[in-house]
Design brief:
alpha/beta; Arc Repressor Mutant, subunit A; four-stranded parallel β-sheet; disordered N terminus; Rossmann fold
Length: 297
């Protein structure tokens, strides 16, 4: 599996009518009395929070914002109001609203959401997350290989080195535990002190005992974490973003890359990461991985 530069710029997502419709359809799912973030919507649609700005632009174009509580329907098509006032920033700040921030705060308050200093109080308890089909992980710096394998198996896995963290080991430990709690992820670590402190904060955590990645996967199974043990073309093993199938019209791009076997183009499926541009295909590497994974079943 190799990589190339081919991706859809995230800043262009808001120009796509389908993306706009998908964003607003998700906004409709946010229940009264709850909020979600631009990043949560972006992650649901693209597998990455990097599209949060595009989501923000799509939300800002909502043609039917809520004007007052329980107003009902409007327009000839009787379209229901879309509650975009329930979308806030990742730090709990209420953010903007096309009808004004004061209106947004008033609407949220009338739904029973407490706002203090322009932020949602009890943010973690008020945050609405869209249903995920599988568990999600965050890993410490000693589990780089395990992170790669979990992504190969299709799991949303954030590696510690990819999180903005202040200097200092204690700051990093706190950041990992906070990140895991905020995103409802399972924290995987080889550090017993981090595991202990994370559990005290209510974070689901697994302390990994061994250094061999196949044995690490066995440990997760022993902790009753249901793992798919088949490589799937879902996530980029390098950056964790979702990958998509390369369309037939894009095959000429592959022909320009010396590392893509020419005899496979047009005969095999290829996938591309929309964040970093890495390209994947099922070659001998995938077969070798399957053989290793068979030993865990």
């Amino acid at each position: 599996m190799m990589g190339l530069s081919l991706c859809l710029p995230l800043e262009k997502l808001n120009m796509n009518e389908n993306f706009q419709a998908e964003v607003l359809n998700l906004v409709k799912q946010i229940p009264c009395g709850k909020v979600t973030t631009y990043g949560e919507i972006a992650r649901k649609l693209t597998g990455s929070v990097r599209a949060a700005r595009a989501v923000g632009r799509a939300v800002a174009k909502n043609p039917y914002p809520v004007i007052k509580p329980l107003q009902g329907l409007r327009g000839r098509g009787a379209e229901p109001h879309i509650p975009c006032h329930r979308v806030v920033r990742s730090d709990g700040n209420v953010g903007g609203y096309k009808l004004g921030v004061d209106r947004k705060i008033k609407l949220l308050s009338e739904e029973g959401i407490e706002i203090q200093g322009g932020k949602v109080a009890n943010f973690a308890q008020t945050l609405f997350r869209f249903k995920e089909g599988t568990v999600r992980f965050v890993t410490d710096r000693m589990l780089g290989k395990l992170s790669t394998w979990l992504r190969i198996l299709g799991y949303d896995t954030v590696y510690a080195a990819d999180i903005a963290i202040k200097n200092g080991e204690e700051d990093e430990d706190n950041a990992l535990a906070t990140f895991a709690a905020h995103e409802a992820r399972i924290l995987l670590t080889r550090d017993k002190n981090l595991a202990a402190s994370a559990r005290k904060k209510g974070v689901q955590c697994v302390q990994i005992e061994t250094a061999v990645v196949m044995t690490q996967l066995k440990e997760l199974l022993r902790h009753n974490i249901p793992l798919n043990l088949e490589p799937v073309p879902v996530r980029c093993s390098e950056c964790n973003a979702r990958i998509r199938k390369v369309e037939a019209s894009e095959e000429d791009i592959l022909k320009d890359k010396s590392y893509v076997p020419p005899n496979m183009i047009g005969k095999r499926d290829f996938w591309v990461c929309e964040r970093c541009g890495r390209v994947y295909w099922e070659g001998s590497h995938w077969r070798n991985m399957r053989e290793q994974l068979k030993q865990l079943k």
